[in-house]
Structure formats: C-alpha cells, structure tokens
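Structure in, sequence out. Go:
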C-alpha cells in the first residue's frame, strides 16, 4: 500500500489506522499546499490535489472516511467497529461521521481565514462566526465524553480516527479547551498512543 500524506492533515487519520491495524505501507510525503500536489501527475490520483490518497494494488481511494471504512472492511477483522447488532453501533456511526458533518466545516473556515489568506483578505466576521460554531460542535463532544473514555464507551473505535483527530486539530488550531475538560483529557489519551505518534510524524 502507498499513502499520499502531509503532516497536520486528514492524511494523519489514515496513517493512524494503518498503524493501529499493523499494516505495512509506503508514504509519499507532501508539505501542505506544495506545487506538486497541483501538477498533472498527482491530479490523476486525486482530482482536487489534496491528501490523503491511498493506493492498494489496483484500488485507489481518496476521502479519509472512505479510506478508513475500506481498510476496516478489508483488513480490520472486526477490530475497531462495534458489531452491527450491538447497542453501540448506531452511536459509532454517528460519531464517525460527526467530524466531517459538524466539526470540519467551521474549522476549514478558520484555517482559510487565519492561515491561508493574506491578512488584507481576511474577514473578522467569518472568524468569529466559525469560532463560535466550532466551539458549539466541540461542546457536544465534551458532553458525550462525560461518562466515558472514548466516543462510544470504554474501548477505542474507528470513530476516534475521524472525530478524535478533528478534536485534536481543533486544539492545535488554538481552540481553548479549558471549558471542555473532558476533551482535554480525551486529547491526552489519544496523543499518547504510539500509533498516533508514529502517524503524526511521517
């Protein structure tokens, strides 16, 4: 397998599950925004010129959630996903998809407005609105973790690769976690995992 990767991106999610599953893979490393991501060779793999992209034999996939679901279905052997007939399965699906449905839209706005755009093109109204929305999405995760170590209970699931990673990136973007104590502990729990550390430092 080959993973097209950049640090501090959604590609870390894919590297993380590959590490947790103990799968061997090669890495093609980019720096976010580098010109080669927009050249024809890479655009033939990912039409938007983004990461991650995974190649597994003749299979090529982009979109981190799709890649994670593919890896679980093909190589997971039941790991990291509650059984479909268990009471946890519906909650697992909810928190797996919460990252892209709720957390990432305002986070993307913040990244654009505070990092990617030159200062003269930034809009303070957009920053304030996105910060408010992002905090609201994180409060919901904080409340969910009031009585559990992981999103779906006492054991880690693949929802951590999606929503857990989005929570970590929110903190690294500067979101204050002092009023979200469950998230602060959750982040520590995830960041101390050896597989996460390896995935973050390719």
């Amino acid at each position: 397998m080959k993973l097209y990767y950049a640090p501090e991106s959604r590609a870390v999610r894919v590297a993380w599950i590959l590490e947790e599953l103990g799968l061997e893979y090669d890495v093609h490393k980019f720096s976010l925004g580098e010109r080669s991501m927009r050249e024809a060779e890479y655009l033939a793999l990912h039409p938007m010129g983004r990461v991650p992209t995974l190649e597994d034999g003749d299979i090529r996939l982009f979109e981190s959630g799709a890649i994670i679901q593919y890896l679980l279905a093909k190589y997971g052997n039941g790991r990291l996903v509650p059984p479909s007939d268990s009471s946890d399965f519906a909650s697992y699906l909810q928190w797996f998809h919460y990252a892209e449905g709720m957390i990432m839209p305002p986070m993307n706005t913040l990244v654009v407005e505070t990092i990617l755009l030159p200062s003269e093109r930034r809009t303070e109204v957009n920053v304030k609105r996105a910060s408010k929305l992002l905090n609201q999405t994180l409060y919901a995760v904080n409340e969910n973790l009031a009585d559990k170590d992981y999103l779906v209970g006492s054991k880690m699931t693949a929802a951590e690769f999606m929503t857990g990673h989005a929570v970590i990136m929110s903190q690294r973007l500067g979101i204050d976690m002092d009023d979200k104590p469950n998230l602060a502990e959750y982040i520590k729990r995830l960041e101390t995992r050896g597989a996460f550390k390896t995935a973050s430092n390719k």
